Here is the input.
Amino acid sequence: YVRHDAVAEPISKFLNRHIDERNHDAEHLIRYHADKRSMKASPATLNPGDVVTVEWPNIPTKKGQWIGVYSPSSAADDDYLDFYDLTKQDDNKRSATFNLINMRDDYEFRLWHGTGHKARLLATSNKVAFKNAQQLPMHVHIALGDSPSEIIVQWTSGNGEIPTVQLGTSSRVYLQNYTGSSHTFKANDMCDVPATVTSSRLFRDPGWMSEVRITDLQPSTRYFYRVRNNATVWSKEFSFNTAPPLGDLTAETRFIALGDLGVTGYPGAVSTVQRSAVDIDNGSTMIVHVGDLAYAHGAMFIWEQFMNIIEPIGSRAAYMVAVGNHEHDHTGSVGTSMCGDDGFGFDPTWGNYGNDSLGECSVPVVNRFHMPKNGRAPFWYSFDHGLVHVLVISTEHDFTKGSEQYKFIQNDLKSVNRTVTPWSIVAGHRPMYSSIAGNPGAQHVSGVIQDSLEELFHMYSVDAALWGHSHAFERTCPMYQGACRGTAENPAGTVHLVIGNAGYALCSEKWDDVSWSEKRLWQYGHARFVASSNTLSFEMIGNAEGNVLDSVVLHKAAVSFPEAFLKESDQHAPSY
Here is the structure.
């Protein structure tokens, strides 16, 4: 819940700042002189985007005061979602403004002084709630389906009945109706605490996630759509553009990639979304998010925030995701195979895997993001989009030689038809190459990824690999076996792009001195790609100014090796 007129901080900071003290001495929280008439929140009925003004005109603002944000209004005093510290606010200013999101429950604000056993409740506001809170569709986003002519429309509401999408090629003129299905998940679907703990701050009702598949779409076409459940409230109108036809070597394919987003304000996640929206305006039709999505760590209200933050871009371009350690890694077990590892976390002795999801074990991702079903989505899968073939892998599941995922990767890369999709891209979370120093565990995992997968990348001429995990930007030369192979104009290896700089706190470590790293930055941004038949253009767009921080153009002399596509043997020479 971002205060409207302040710079937002990562929610994890909010959760850690006061809650530990309050939980330790929760029985000492004292309510006295808490007059509801002395604090007012308006408007009481909200529409999406409304700014809430909270006023306490009869109570002087003093150092040590803070406002707790509660939803539902019945939440216990120590179970607040967020807070705003009034310490630095002018004594004469007795108001604050907030942006809220619809979580299908009402809100209340409480004015406190002090923390721990010294906390005193000074005032409680009236309740505020969104109009049609249960029926209003939220978190609208789309994904590519099982063929280039299919899109999956997904959203959340409090009503899972008969999900419906109306579609047309003109604004407000909807000629087609599609229906789908809805589902939800519960606390006991996840693996461990704190994700399994029910509270307003941790597990709360996630609503019903609806999915409708739109088929028989035409390439290079703009579509307009709206969604609802049963006969309830329609969403506002959204639109998206489909990619050019597969194999059309005269057209360009534009897309975006980013990683490690979170829910931070300027200059982090919110700025990344705003900059990415400009690229969608200019023709990008796909977003690849290479893991570490919300950083919710078991707090479902942060998933609500994340889905709300990405809606302006996810509703307009196919939002394709990989899982990261903060979605998936777990040490607990679950009774279903929803997490893609038969209920047990991937925790090899050679890795630094653990419980980074704090018990989520990918359950929110599996339910919120439905991807193409040709692998074990959303963990590993692939798709064609315009002139690009994208293989999404999971570095949080077994990828070593002989594993189920390894076999999928091998078969997928072997089957890419480069006469149709000249460019082959792999996207995953933990990087195969990164020169960030000071983390030997991460570097060892990178070495295992190299040992397991790099030969396949080279054998089947993967042009670029997109990674996150390291909260920075780094671009390598075309690489194979730890060395530069060729140049961007004549590549003989894979260019690795670490793009974990989309929003979460940037790394502060030093860089190792390596010959293969061509650009390294500690700045927020996202990646922009333009693919033609013989070039793949990349730019890193900075959040602060919207300027190009780095760029490279990979060249391909001609659409290469259709014979490799047809050959059964794996023993063919790479052709970049």
User: Anything to note?
Assistant: The first strand starts at residue 30 and ends at 31. The longest helix spans residues 440-459.
